[in-house]
Amino acid sequence: MTAIPAAYVGAFGAPEGYLNFASYGPPSSPVVSETARLLELAHSGADSGQYLHAMDRRATGAAARLSGFAPQNVGLVPSTSHGLFQAAFGVSGGEVLVSSAEFPANLYPWWRARDAGLLQVRTLPENGCPLAPVTPERVRAALTESTVAVSVSAVDFRTGYRADLAGIREAVGDRLLVVDGIQGFGAIELPWDAADVLVAGGQKWMRAGWGCGFMALSDRALERLGNTLGGWTAVNQPTNYDGVQHPPLDGAARLSVTNGSPFASGALSAALELAESAGVEAIEAAIAERMDYFIDRLDEARVSVASPRAREDRAGIVVAEFSDGSAPAMHERLAEAGITATLHGSTRIRLSVHATTTEAAVDTAATILKGTS
């Protein structure tokens, strides 16, 4: 398997049987130590916040380098949902196209903006297959003159299908392309700058913990998105407390709501810098090889695989399917053996591997699932 720098592998301490990175990625020791260092600095009172809030620039710089966006076009958000709400309430009029199979974090912001009378929402036609992947062809066929934006996940949380962002970008043309990147950013290379709005929380594949993330905007998005939810930190001279509304800042900062947590910014910085040190390309290659091995083992065990097989169509998620409804029992057996995974209903178990996953963990999972499909 692809060799990953020992310093990277040694930075993590999750149990060997942890196969649930699509749900939560246990953070690294640099993330933990950096958070502790910043908390201690705040605890000591040695810094009034100037140094602590410099962590914001450090985090946006790292996110910019890994995403391909200009630093001034990157802002910090505490969650993917927060960023998607900013996008939804910033769209002015028209229709947004989104699949009903999206994770709810990429549905509720659009529904809430619709309910507020700001836009219309249209579901991507299912054509009898509600869980079909979002492809450029499906998007192109569904566009209308009223469509002003399309929202999609870079990686589908149900199946692990990797969206063709470049193809969808071409299909939507001059419309806004909003991308929920949480199921892939930091672990796979994609043309992230094909998005007009890229949002990703840090708690999954970036392995930065909860409460941190970023939002990156194209120049097109900055021109078209209103700062409906922009707060007091999103304006010029925010500390000039004169009781009047100030003009918005330039760049992604115009969507800021308030000062964020420097501890979250420090955690995100440490996580992204660790990924940089190993190289996302190397991390992706290691994940891909572990996925190949996992799928081969499931095939040998005659377990049905309900996720993409081709490398170009998948990320780090593999779904084991049990048409007889035995998934809950299998999930319980996995847990008893120290394998952490996610149960999806009565027929599917979602397992997800990272660059730190071992063959032994995959072997254990496949052995438990053997002959049950």
Would you mind describing this structure in some detail?
- Helix content is 35%, strand content 13%.
- The protein is an alpha/beta fold and 373 residues long.
- A 7-stranded mixed beta sheet has the order 1-7-6-5-4-2-3, with helices on both faces. Strands 8-9-11-10 form a 4-stranded antiparallel beta sheet, with helices on one face.
- Helix 4 (80-90) packs parallel to helix 5, helix 6 (136-142) runs parallel beside helix 7 (165-172) and helix 10 runs parallel beside helix 12.
- It is globular, with a radius of gyration of 21 Å.
- It starts with 5 loop residues before the first helix and ends with a helix.
- The relative contact order is 0.17.
Produce a short descriptive summary.
The protein is built from twelve helices and eleven strands.
Cα shape: globular
What is the distance, rounded to the nearest whole angstrom, between the alpha carbons of the first and last residues?
28 Å
Estimate the strand proportion: 5-15%
Order of helices and strands: HHHEHEHEHEHEEEHHHEEHEEH
**Helix proportion:** 25-40%
- Cα-atom radius of gyration: 21 Å
- How are the strands ordered across the major sheet? 1-7-6-5-4-2-3
Count of distinct strands: 11
Topology:
Elements: H1 6-9, H2 29-44, H3 55-67, E1 74-76, H4 80-90, E2 95-98, H5 108-115, E3 120-123, H6 136-142, E4 147-153, H7 165-172, E5 176-180, E6 197-201, E7 213-217, H8 219-224, H9 262-278, H10 280-300, E8 304-305, E9 317-321, H11 327-336, E10 342-344, E11 348-352, H12 359-369
